[in-house]
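Limitations
The structure tokens in this dataset are predictions for the assembled complex, not deposited experimental models. Users should treat interface geometry with appropriate caution, especially where small molecules or nucleic acid strands are included. An illustrative entry is reproduced here so readers can see what is and is not provided.
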Amino acid sequence: MLSLVAFQRDFAAALRAATVAEPAALTIHRNTGARAAIDALAANYPVVLALFGEEPFAACAQAYLQVSPPCEPRLSHVGAGFAMFLRSYPPVQDILWIADVAALERLWLESLFSADAAILDGAALLQQGVNDETRLVLHPATRFAPFASPAVSIWHAHASEDPNALEMIEWRPETALVTRPGQAVEIDAVGPGGLAFLKAVAAGQPLVGAGAAAFDADPEVDLQTLFARLMESGAFTPTLSDRSPS
Amino acid sequence: MTLTAGLGFKLEHLDAVLAARNPGLWFEVHSENYMMDGGPRLAALEAVRREHPVSLHGVGLSLASVTPPDPDHVARLARLAERIEPCAVSDHLAWTRSGGVEHGDFLPFPRSRSALACVVDNIQRVQDVLRRPLLVENPSTYIDLPGHAFDEATFLAEMVQRSGCELLLDVNNAFVSAHNLGGDAQAYLDALPAAAIREIHLAGHSPDPDGATGLLIDTHDAPIVDAVWQLYARLIDRIGARPTLIERDDHIPPFEQLMVERNRAAALLAYDSARAELVDA
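Predicted assembly:
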């Protein structure tokens, strides 16, 4: 009798490589597992699915899952490396921006499942007074990433009802800001000043330093408007020291 | 309140679920879908929990694996259980993982003595962290493997006795396995230890799309068939009322339609409870 170790090793190997005369049960288990993984990938990347169309997406998903099979039972984690895979997937070599859209969808999911925390109220912060040592803290659900493509606009065009939305996109790099100010995740684009500001905050620099970094990156930046927009998006959470007692 | 018949909770049914007031109604979720730090999905489950009992039904412990359950996964399950205070925590008698890969289905194994020892050890590791008995579900089987030392009912009974776990009896799985392997579902159900059965699952199945195989697949994508309802009625008659879940994971109909199946199970349970009271009186 085979040991359980050998049995599971051989069964797993048989699942990987279909043969003509294999038992029907093996085909059923293989198909069920493959279907679950492809469905999970499609659920996690709805805009990439829409950009591909169903059949090309299924082919792409199969190719991806062949090299990166699910390694964790949470379906929301299927496709963690999908964006990187797409960068070297031959059928999209001329439309590499699709990898940016995948990366953006990953940030959206990460934001959705992040820890709950209070949102920093910008007006209250200013009222309380800001000094050289004041530091902002990113909310646990905040993500940002610079893209060489207008990935944010492409993402929004797919969410919009307007059939011409895609054609109206101006082709330029965009930095995505992903936040969760309430029960829904929001995606916005910020300019080079915004990116520099967020990077400085993430690196633990004081607010004044973040402002200076934004100005260095984009001398045209309107810091007041940028600050107001970031506050409105719920990008920050109060630090322990400035959290009002309640 | 005594739990009667429940439903798998689907996010799209949230409003109807929160408003439902049927006596004994409860809900079940796949634990893995709620293993996250925060956000609206977890908030929805917490809202459901404020109105109804909730059970956590996992697919990721891989209890029949030769390697112990992933401690990180068990810790996430424990955190979720702490948060939700579920009426039950369950998973499957199967392996789903090997060599760091999730196979995405409940895989069979020879019910050998070493497999029994392995399953019992895995269950105990989880129970030690959860500090409560785990409910373990009987599988749907598509192949008659060589190398069994126990028939399935005996294996389950031994597993219960040695590990202290309890049983989640899926009547549809018993029906599908009996069909696929040429067994007798009624005899199988009759052989299971009544006291260990703490929850029942009812679900639909579908024929293998490759019609030549003649196999049934446990797809949870269709209404429960009459033969499964018959097995269920006889089971309840033998063991008494148990919390019963209508499982539906694909081609999900509106909430009201699922409640029709749920109410059918609830009516059977109420009938049995009324009969039991007469017998006890």
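Some entries come with short summary sentences. For this one: Chain B is about 45% helix and 20% strand.
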